[in-house]
Each structure stands twice: as structure tokens, then as C-alpha cells.
Design a protein that fits this description.
This protein has a single domain, classed as 2-Layer Sandwich (HIT family, subunit A). The chain contains 4 helices and 5 strands; from the N terminus they run E-E-E-H-E-E-H-H-H. The two termini are 32 Å apart. Strands 1-2-3-5-4 form a 5-stranded antiparallel sheet. The radius of gyration is 16 Å and the shape is globular.
Length: 164
């Protein structure tokens, strides 16, 4: 069964792709891209047109998040490997204020003991991704956000992505 997001969360919809704000995320600009109206388990299941447009939409989405919400990074990950979940992508903005919250949260200090000195002793994308997932998606009491709200971010992103 394909995922059909509520209209108020949709940023962009094409014949092949639907881009929406992650319904569970309390972090403004945390988006998801999924095939429109069909269940797809693998890239090989996508139509040639969907494959052709996928890269352009990923690039447009990443750039729009950067230009309008000004995160320090935007992570893009492929999901949908659990049974019943269609292939989809997560776009995760990492704001400077999120990094500062992570640095102050001593519950995540345990991660430092896992760092490989060969790769440095500072947090990386995996650390921030874990923090964002636990604190802004799973938590019923997320940290306070800085900047636009989720609803404001949806409006900003929708206006920007559809004007270009």
C-alpha cells in the first residue's frame, strides 16, 4: 500500500514523486520524497521517467532547503527497506542550533567513546542523524526549535520550490 501524505504536508507533487514534510518530524524542513501512488521496493521497480526525474528532484529539494532555511548541512538518505514500506528518501536539515543542542546533551556523550581516532574526534553526520531522529522525530517532548515552525517551513518551501 503506497503512502499518501495529507495535502497540508505536501511541498511538491509530480506524476512520479511526492515531496512532503515528514509527518512525525518536529524539525522544520525534514522532508520525505516517495513514489506517487505506488508501492516500490527497489530502484529497479521505478519507471524510466521516475528514475530520470529522481535526481533532479533530489537536487532541487536539497538546494531549496539550503537556500530558504539555511541549515549547515542537508543529509539525504534512502529508506524503505522494512516490509511494507515503499522506497523513499529523507532530507534532514542540520542547523547550527541543532548541533549546539547535540553538543550540550550529555546523553549522547557515549558516542564519543565510539569515535575512531583515525577519522577525528568530532561528531559527524551519523551522530547528528541519530540525535535528530531520537529528539525531533521519536520524542514526544522535542527541544525548542529556532527559526520558522514546521508549518511556516512548509509554506516557505512550497512557495520556493513551486516558483522555480
Amino acid at each position: 500500500m503506497p503512502f499518501i501524505p495529507p495535502p497540508e504536508s505536501i511541498i511538491l507533487q509530480t506524476d512520479d514523486w511526492t515531496l512532503n514534510h515528514n509527518l512525525s518530524a518536529k524539525l522544520p524542513g525534514y522532508l520525505m520524497l516517495s513514489p506517487t501512488g505506488e508501492y516500490v521496493s527497489d530502484f529497479s521497480d521505478l519507471s524510466p521517467n521516475a528514475l530520470d526525474s529522481m535526481g533532479r528532484i533530489i537536487a532541487l529539494t536539497t538546494q531549496t532547503i539550503k537556500d530558504t532555511l539555511s541549515p549547515e548541512h542537508v543529509f539525504v538518505g534512502r529508506y524503505g527497506v522494512s516490509p511494507g514500506f515503499s522506497l523513499h528518501f529523507h532530507f534532514v536539515p542540520v542547523y547550527g542550533w541543532v548541533k549546539r543542542l547535540f553538543d550540550k546533551d550529555n546523553r549522547y556523550d557515549i558516542l564519543k567513546s565510539l569515535y575512531n581516532p583515525q577519522f577525528g574526534s568530532t561528531p559527524d553526520g551519523a551522530d547528528w542523524q541519530l540525535y535528530i531522529w531520537r529528539e525531533f522525530v521519536e520524542s514526544s517532548d522535542p527541544p525548542a526549535i529556532e527559526g520558522p515552525s514546521v508549518d511556516e517551513a512548509i509554506a516557505i518551501l512550497r512557495r520556493s520550490i513551486n516558483s522555480g
